[in-house]
Amino acid sequence: MASPRTATSQPSTVRVLCLTSFLRNRQGTAFSGYDTNAAQAWASIQSTCGISYPTDVQPAAASPTSLPGCANSSYTASCLSGNTYTVASGDDCQKIAHNNNVATGTLKIINQILPDCTDIEVGQVLCLPR
């Protein structure tokens, strides 16, 4: 039978190992959102745990538009349906979708709008389906 100390410390050790592995992987890629704030937090965790791994922020590996299969920087999006809507003050995705008889999800997907719709701006032209 395991001692009480072993039984309670083992899950903690597993959590620390998993967190350490996660943070090492996050630090090692330019695509993880690892920034200077994350680097400072990772350095603090390492100090507390008595471990030492790199904390430097990785430079961006490429512009998303220079990746194979993605649009190049000269690409201009167009609305294939020809139906557009210009965002007005006070608009949100639900209001725009309702007023144009479009599903909110469809509006977000075809315009690459964030799920919480916080990235639309007044004057932005949105594509509407047929």
From TrEMBL:
Residues 83-128 form the LysM domain. InterPro entries: LysM, LysM_dom_sf. It comes from the Eukaryota. Pfam families: LysM (PF01476). This is LysM domain-containing protein. It comes from Elaphomyces granulatus.
